[in-house]
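agent> step 3/5: call structure_predict on target 'Pentatricopeptide repeat-containing protein' (Triticum urartu).
agent> reason: downstream docking stage needs a structural representation; sequence fetched in step 2, passing through unchanged.
tool.input:
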Amino acid sequence: MEWPDQEGRETRDEWQGGNRGQRKREGKYERRAYVRWANVGISRCRWDKRNRQATTQIEKEGPSENIGKEGQSSFQLQLRQLWKWSCGEGLRVGKQMRGAETSSWMKQLASSSRQGRHGHALHLFFTRLSLQASIAGTVDPYPASVPTALRACAHLADAASGRLIHALVLTRPALASDKVVATALLDMYAKCGLIPSARKVFDEMPARDLVVWNALLAGYARHGLPEHALALAVKMRGLGLSPDLVTWNAAVSGFAMAGDGRMASDLVGAMQEDGFQPDVVTWTTLVSGSVLNFQYGRARTLFREMVAGGARVLPSSATLSSILPAFAGVGDTKHGKEVHGYAVVTGVEQELTVSSALVDMYAKSGLVHEACRLFDKMAERSTVTWNSMIFGLANSGHCREAVSLFDRMLGEEATPDHLTFTAVLTACSYGGMVEAGKALYQRMRDERGIVPRLEHYACMVHLLGRAGRLVEAHDFIRAMPVEPDCFVWGALLGACRSHGNVELAELAASRVRTVEPENAASYVLLSGALADAGKQNDVLKIKRLVKRRRLKKLDGCSWLETS
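tool.output (status=ok):
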């Protein structure tokens, strides 16, 4: 087939194997290639006047939050192309689908959705539309396929594709008035964080059942609006609709994730008064919320109450993966190993979330060999798993092994993210591998297209500073396209203290105080550098200044396991 422009040719090459690392891993479709491919394909289809009006409406009225200027411009361009371009020959892919029955195609779509292959499901949906356009010159989706495609968008947090489907829905009165489609639209917007859009769909629905109310309520809770979730539950009860267990769990989740444990507990009490007993979802939500807000003691207490207290609820794999970071955060390997034993007995050890959490727990606790043993046993590894292992090796002093593991990650066609590069740059810094670190930083930008974040800049300054290349580190900071934060300047200050450069230490300390005036650590480091240089009078001045400003350095701590 002929692709109409350079963008199309690049997308074809990417889809057909030009970049296997992004295209496919262990038989699962990755998101970037097919979504871009599908959007390019569908934007070539001929659209009638109704489609033009619908896409214009979405473009004008649809909220643009969480997309950013570049993404919003790209999306608006695609909307214009929906009716501007002609299909020509259409997308001649999936030839076996030309003669396939709709029921057969729907079975493939439903099967992909059930198996969690949401990327593949979305690919099938857009492929079908493209073939329709190439054969019949119009796009008319099978009604039952639209909710499935929207659920795929929700799981992938792909708001752009979801909006394209919404534009298509608005051109089909039967779809626009379908309650299942409207509920899927609301859920998609809510899970993508576009709460105003979700609320708009909710308000425009002529009839709302409990599923619809719960979808919006869960969206409020998931995105840090617990008060809105609670107000919606109260309104729902006022309209004569009784909340169910899903409603209560969503409300509890909102306050638990926001760190308001007291309100979450009060809601659990109200839930019991309403005749509902907390289930495994309720307890997992409470534990997860505590861990998310670094309330590790509360998380462990809740977990004990869940499994051994009055609740007697069996934890799920989600519960185990939620509680393990609480043990890792305080070095409690004893109870962490007990959870590991339970995972083995119940047969969930090899589930990706559980095994990843176990690797992270052992790595953070310094049990690197145990973490490596589990890591090598895993049948499937996510980017999070690789990151945990690389960080664990780096923090335990196995820096060259950490870099080797990063190379192995690339060799297995896993996709590194910004945290992966933070981990491997940390390993280079601790291991004194300056040139390797500089090369990795360059590869991150040039090959992977990852825009450096402040943590990457801090890693590079730390890398150069530990090697004694202080002037180069300072020049690196001056060349940064963003304003350095206290961690970037703090890395330089610590290096100046180690290498006795008082002049540069004073400069770095002044920058830290400008960014974060209450940071006592900068005064302590500068005082140490001055003391090493024999400038006792300046040290006394620093101490008087700290005392006058009533600054207090946070005490460090170490964890010791006792019987």
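agent> step 4/5: record observation. The longest strand covers residues 24-25.
agent> proceeding.
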